[in-house]
Amino acid sequence: MNAIDLPTVLLVDDEVRSQEAMRRTLEEDFRILTAGDAEQARALLEQYPVAVILCDQRMPGQTGVAFLKEVRARWPDTVRIVISGYTDSEDIITGINEAGIYQYILKPWVPDHLLDTVRQAAESRSLQGALHRMEIDLRAGTGVLRQRATEQLARAKDTFDFGRIECSPGSPVEEVCRMAAKVARYDLSVLVHGESGTGKELLARAIHYASGRAAGPFVVENCAAIPDTLIESELYGHKRGAFTGAYDDHIGLFQRADKGTIFLDEIGETSPAFQVKLLRVLQEGEVRPVGAPKPVAVDVRVIAATHRDLEADVRSGRFREDLYYRLANVTVTMPPLRERGGDVALIAQRLLDEVARSLGRGALRFTADALAVLQAYPWPGNIRELNNEVTRAVALSDPLAAPDGAGLIDAHAFSRKVLQGAGSEVSQTRPEGGLHLDIPQSGTLQERLDRIEAAVLRETMLRLRWNKTHAARELGLSRVGLRAKLQRFGLEPK
């Protein structure tokens, strides 16, 4: 080790021979500085980082304890040692209490003892410094982690706020969100009913982040995907070696969700065995991992979701009645998209913005014609189907240019299925892809025929991108006859 890398020891003694004796004892292990009095010592302390200071007690002008009391105030990290030929107990007590003396060394000192004492003092200072730095780093790190966690929680609360669930004034979803927001404040189990793709998980997340458990985990599990052979392991966890193939400890769903919320999707698809295991957790508030000697308490809020009529399943014996009432403290129903006509445009535009960002496209919006088609289509796959259709339209279309520079997605960008499905007031798609029109149930014969004719014309024109020549040929009309019918039904393109 180079001399510059050695710990520095300052020797303060008015006797030169004593200084030299201590220097010879310590110089192989330490970098040595010497001072004849307190004033010289102060000057050196101002210039160099001193690890250990050895000071004679009896010096002209100022005693060693008095000087080291000043050192303690100005250079508290320096380890202070007094060398004295006197055993005055009052000096020792004063030194320990006021000057923070590390150790007294009595004259005549023994070289090996002096060297060991200074080594221990230097090591003590080094350890204290390391602990201090670790404490600072830990505090800083803890603060950073706490700040990050706070920021992440704030973002999650904003992302999954009830206000982010798109709905227009008067939408049935407004009442659903109002009810769910009230329930969120209380630690009740919630059963969310609705068709696939209606946003049941989004509502469950909004409930979680509006509750007192928002800082806890939100664990999602598709119950239909858990085989009966793994039910206990998935719900409760297992210990290493509990069964063949259990090579490591596994934390179960309920332990992962402790102090938070667990969202059990497709709860209506579970087997009787699953229902029994789940009921035990909800009743006892604890789980016993497979192979564990004792149970573990868990504090979890349960939100379950299903597209099935669980009350009917209870009556038929397919679903346990006691589990149903454990899960359904409160039941809310997410309406299908076909019952949210006023919400389709809002949801579609939000999805369009998200897809455009993910695909690296600029700002996009739908034309009025495109929105009319989206609102007319019944969306049997609900929001998932709408998202797929919007993604397809963005990926495959060449948007028109709007005056403000945004791209316009026209109805021509939609799939044939959607164009055909939107072609009548109540429409479905045949397995072979053909258009099926339900006969209107009101109006005179001519009025009903007119409505069917208008629907066929609209679907054909949209599908053929308003190419009148092709449409006239397909419908067996002349261009003049087609134009007359379009004018009659007000179907000229906007």
TrEMBL record:
Biological process according to GO: phosphorelay signal transduction system; regulation of DNA-templated transcription
Keyword Transcription regulation among UniProt keywords: yes
Response regulatory domain segment(s): 8-122
Residues annotated as domain Sigma-54 factor interaction: 173-395
Residues recorded with modification 4-aspartylphosphate: D56
Entry-linked InterPro entries: AAA+_ATPase, AAA_lid_NorR, CheY-like_superfamily, Homeodomain-like_sf, HTH_Fis, P-loop_NTPase, Sig_transdc_resp-reg_receiver, Sigma_54_int
SMART domains reported in the protein's UniProt record: AAA, REC
Highest rank taxon of the organism: Bacteria
Keywords, in A-Z order: ATP-binding, DNA-binding, Nucleotide-binding, Phosphoprotein, Transcription, Transcription regulation
GO molecular function terms listed in the Swiss-Prot or TrEMBL record: ATP binding; sequence-specific DNA binding
CDD domains for the chain: AAA
Full protein name: Sigma-54-dependent Fis family transcriptional regulator
Native species: Aquabacterium olei
